[in-house]
Structure formats: structure tokens, C-alpha cells
Amino acid sequence: MRDIIITLIVFASLPFAFKRPYIGVLMWVWMSVMNPHRLSWGFAYDFPFAAIIAGVTLAGVLFTKDPKRLPFTPVVATFFALTFWMAFGELFALHPTTELLMRFLKIALMTGVTLMVVKTKRQIHLLIWVLVGSLGYYGVKGGAFTVLSGGSFRVWGPEGTFIEGNNEIALGLITVIPVFYYLFLEATKRWHRYALGAATVLCAMAAIGSYSRGAMLGISAMVLFLWLKSAHKAKLGLIMVLVIPAALAFMPAQWMQRMDSVKEYKSDDSAQGRINAWTMTFNLASDRPLVGGGFDIYDESTFARYAPVPTDIHAAHSLYFQVLGEHGFVGLALYLLLGLQVWRTGTRIVKSTALRPDLKWAATLATMLQVSMIGFGTGGAFLSLLYFDVPYYLMAIMVVTGRLVEQELAATGSKLLPATARPAPLVAHAARSSS
Q1: Domain spans of the chain, in order of start
Q2: How many CA atoms are closer than 13 Å to the CA of 392, on its beta-carbon side?
């Protein structure tokens, strides 16, 4: 029955995806992030729904008459430079492979399509709803499971997907929790706010219930950033003091023991394995500084050549060491530059809309996207999720929001401020308005 329902939904959407390609983007994100076909047990489980959706969406981009233009911003230029460098470096890989390269090229292609066809506030909000709904399904389900089981069992992601592991689903959830909070702040109906607030709490409980130490570090970093940015530090601080200890006290003793093992990394086999993998990637990048070793480097021969403990073979377990080992120092520099430019785009949006109440939503969204970056960047320091697509879709949302703000400001004779600029004082703004 699930197979039939998913198939009907996808094929019924195809005419709309062709006529309005942004609908195709929404369907692609739903299929690639939530993987609803993996919740079935029949023919739909391995059916190439995503490829069909992508093909129809691309045909719509080519043949529909709506204007479509890729915004040329520093973020977009760096993103495609990183994509090119990954593909170029694979020509010199230690063990050439196409699987992960093709995965990232698909992400890059559909991110580019997203940048071209998502243009309005409504379309941005629809994309956000699809993203948070896709991961929120597992977050609400996992959070309820954590509460009902008293946190005695780990929360796992959907089988056969990129977020199947407990660490991966946890990082995915903390990445979208700030966007959940944005929707909560924007909600106008009371029941919407109650539902979104409950979903946000359950997603946080699911991340905690995953027993992921990296996720806890990510949540801690996000909470600290929110408190620093809050205009009501005393009120927010009081809420944190009351809620956080209560949530942690709810978890059983084995959860506390796993979190405490961070302090004992020298005797923790998992931590030592990660350090061994990090050292391997650094040594590999030092030997091949431009292009690294390629996508497939976690095998016996590579560890025998570059790792301190050749027999302790692990994945990189870090975004930064992963990109360093696989794509060299150039790849790492491009990745870090991309993050910096996305952050600066958010800062520019916040500063440029300080005196525009009608654009307050954009400032709030940009701030929450920055919080997502902090969560993903902190938790990702201990997980190999370089090719996880959600952060790239959030990047596209930041760019599209910036473009929309720029258009709104241009309509009134203003312009987007540099990230280093200070917004004009309110008195000066009032003087200009009356002249």
C-alpha cells in the first residue's frame, strides 16, 4: 500500500514539476532528504523516483518560459569552484570511483536549479517546510520514542539512507532545529505555534536520544550562540537553566556514561580510532596537498601508508579532515571559504534589514540559518557528512533570501550592506524619510 501511495504522489506531481520547476525542486528535496520510498517494502524501495523527478524538473527549466537566472554571488562561485575541484581531483585519485562523485554532482546540479527557480518568499517558505517536514518526521517519531522509553534505547535514522546511523540522524536534526524555530517565530496561529514548538522539542529529544556526542556538542554551540545573540539574555538564560538540566536528568545512566566518555578520549577506542583517521588524512594531504587522495581513501593500503596505526581503519569522522584527506588543502580552503561567505551573506541580510519591519522575516531566517551552520559545523567536526545535502539546500535558501532582500531594497533606492558595515542609525533614517 505504501508503495502505491508514494508512486501515485510522485507521478501525479510530474506535470506540475514540468510546468513550475520549483515544485520539482520541492519533490526532489522531499525524496532525497526524507527518502519516503525507504519506508515501503515492495517495488518502490529501490525505484528511481529521484532521477525521474530530476529529469522532469530539468526539462521544465529548459522548456518553460519563466525567466531563470543563476545568481552570481561569491557563495555560488565558491560552491561551484568546490564542485569542480572535487571532480577534477578524482582524475588523480588513489582509487578512482564514481559513486560519491556522482552523488555530489547531483546535489550540486539540483542546488543550482534551486538557486534558479526559487525566487519568492512563498517559495522559500515552501522549501523550508519540505526540509523540516522531511527530517522532522523522524525527529518527532524519535523524540516520542525517547520520551516513552525513558531514553533507554538509541534513536536511529531510516534504513538504507545517508542518515541511517544514530550520529547522522542526530546531526541532520540539529541542523534543521533552528529552522523549525524560525517557523515557530513566524507562525501567526496559536495552534501552529504549539505544534511547531512541540516538534522542535521532540527533535531535540531525538538528537539527545541518539547518544551522539557530536550532536550534543552541536546543540551546546547553538544554544550558546542563541543566548549571545538574544536581546533577552536574562529570560532566555533562566529558561535554559530550568529546561536543560531537566532534559539531561531525564536520560538514563548509560547515556550519561557515554557523554562523559568525551573526557576520557585516551582510553576510548572510538576516539582513538578517529584520531588515527584524522592523522591519516593529514599525512595524506601533506603528501598530495593539491587534490588529496580522492573520494575512496579509507582502505588497508591507504592506512598502511599514512596512518600511525595501519590496522585501525575508520572513516574520517570529521567534515574538515574528510575534505582535507579527500580533496587536499585546496579543497579544505574552498570549503571553509564557502562557509565564511554563507555566514557573511547572513550578516549582510541582518544588517541591511534592521530598519525594514517588512523584511524582519529575512533577518530572522538569516540568523537561524547561521545557527544551523554552527550546529552542523560543530557536530560535523566529528562526523563524515561532507556530502549530506541538507546544508547545501540551506545555503541556497540563504542566497535566495539575500537576492530577494536586495531586490526589495533596490525598489526603495537602498542596497544590501556589506557584512562589515553598520546599519544606519534610526535617527538618520527618519531624517532621510522626512526630507
Answers
A1: 1-68, 78-117+269-435, 128-267
A2: 28
| Residue among 176, 222, 166, 165 nearest 29 (CA) | 176
Contact call for residues 200 and 177 (beta carbons, < 8 A)? yes
Q: Which residues contact 34 (CB under 8 A, 6 or more apart)?
A: 133, 134, 135, 137, 138, 158
pLDDT for position 300: 92
Could you list the mean pLDDT of each consecutive 10-residue stretch along the chain, which spans 435 residues? 90 95 96 90 89 95 86 94 96 89 93 95 96 94 90 86 87 92 90 90 90 83 81 74 74 75 56 87 95 93 93 89 96 97 95 90 94 92 90 96 92 72 45 37
Contacts of 223 (CB under 8 A, 6+ apart): 240, 244
**Which residues, in sequence order, are CB contacts of 369 under 8 Å at separation 6+?**
178, 179, 342, 346, 394, 397, 398
Phi, psi of 273 (to 5 degrees): -65, -35
Q: Which distant-in-sequence residues (6+ apart) come within 8 Å of 38 by Cβ? A: 45, 158, 159, 160, 161
| Other Cβ atoms within 10 Å of 99 Cβ, number | 8
Q: Which grid coordinates belong to 218?
A: 552541536
